């Protein structure tokens, strides 16, 4: 049983790691006392270089940890059921839903439900295998994972290592499309979870508003993908980007705080986004349409 569980965990980390970045700088905008809750040693965004332009997409880990910090009631019915995994047949569907299940896995991992976590580990692992990622990642990560199973900080760092390995494989094989679709699925699912958990919570509403740059990046990245199955999704992403662009925001710069000993940099500048109920409702409707397009 132990070997089986470890295998599932490895499969999950190998796939889910593509949602994390290889960059060492934290993307959090909180103060250093609260920033540690959102990031440990590695950044929580995915980065892409396309046609000379850098795009940065926040990781679902950010939102999952925020929901835990805000003591949001766990709602399993918000997740994409693991039973849906078998109906994803195309590479596009598999890549996007690997991202979706990765976000669900981050959310579930913050709960005290070992069996449900294992179910999502399994779904992520199998989709990772389906799109050919697992066969191209150094299996020494399994031993490293076992050696560090009790160290939370080490596991987050291992996630970054897995990301680098998977990211290198995809880029070496000029498979940017798959990587973009994984990040898209994860971002949409984490935003879906946040929207349906907000209930007037100021911190979660602020996190939703902060996605303006991310949705702009994703809309542009996805627009570059040539696939007839993405036509409606591209349209909805473009509309969502416009809604976010209309949100008002203020920015306050603060000097970053560097912890050289622990190799952490905390970005303490703060952007405050103002969003009224009508704008939130419009965002929620478009996110729901995009998500349904992905998981249907």
Structure report:
With 296 residues, the protein is mainly alpha-helical. The protein has one domain. The strands form three sheets. A two-stranded antiparallel ribbon has the order 1-2. Strand 4 and strand 5 form a beta hairpin. Helix 1 crosses helix 5.
Short structural summary:
This protein is mainly α. Helix content is 57%, strand content 9%. It has one domain (2-295).
| Shape summary | globular
Q: Give the count of helical stretches.
A: 12
SSE run: HHEEHHHHHHHHHEEEEH
| Largest beta-sheet details | 2 strands, antiparallel
**Contiguous runs where pLDDT drops below 50 for at least 5 residues:** 1-12, 20-44, 149-153
Structural class by secondary-structure content: mainly alpha
Question: What integer value in Å does the Rg equal?
Answer: 18 Å
**Total individual domains:** 1
Q: Compute the number of strand runs.
A: 6
Quote the distance from N terminus to C terminus: 33 Å
Strand order of the largest sheet: 1-2
The share of residues in helices is 55-70%
Arithmetic mean pLDDT: 75
């Amino acid at each position: 049983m132990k070997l089986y569980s470890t295998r599932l965990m490895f499969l999950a980390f190998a796939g889910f790691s593509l949602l994390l970045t290889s960059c060492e700088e934290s993307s959090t905008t909180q103060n250093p006392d609260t920033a540690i809750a959102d990031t440990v040693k590695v950044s929580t965004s995915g980065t892409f270089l396309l046609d000379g332009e850098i795009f940065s997409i926040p990781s679902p880990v950010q939102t999952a940890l925020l929901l835990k910090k805000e003591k949001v009631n766990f709602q399993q019915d918000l997740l994409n059921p693991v039973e849906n995994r078998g109906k994803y047949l195309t590479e596009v569907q598999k890549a996007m839903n690997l991202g979706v299940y990765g976000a669900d896995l981050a959310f579930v991992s913050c709960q005290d439900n070992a069996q449900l976590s294992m179910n999502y580990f399994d779904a992520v692992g199998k989709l990772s295998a389906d799109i050919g990622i697992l066969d191209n990642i150094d299996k020494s990560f399994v031993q490293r994972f076992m050696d560090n199973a009790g160290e939370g900080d080490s596991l987050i760092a291992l996630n970054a290592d897995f990301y680098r390995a998977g990211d290198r494989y995809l880029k070496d094989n000029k498979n940017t499309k798959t990587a973009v679709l994984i990040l898209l699925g994860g971002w949409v699912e984490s935003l879906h979870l946040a929207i349906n958990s907000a209930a007037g919570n100021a911190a979660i509403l602020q996190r939703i508003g902060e996605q303006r740059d991310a949705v702009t990046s994703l809309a542009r990245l996805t627009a570059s993908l040539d696939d007839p199955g993405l036509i409606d999704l591209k349209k909805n992403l473009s509309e969502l980007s416009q809604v976010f662009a209309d949100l008002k925001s203020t920015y306050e710069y603060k000097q970053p705080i560097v912890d050289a000993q622990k190799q952490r940099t905390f970005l303490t500048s703060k952007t405050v986004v103002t969003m009224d109920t009508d704008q939130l409702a419009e965002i929620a409707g478009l996110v729901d349409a995009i998500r349904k397009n992905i998981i249907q």
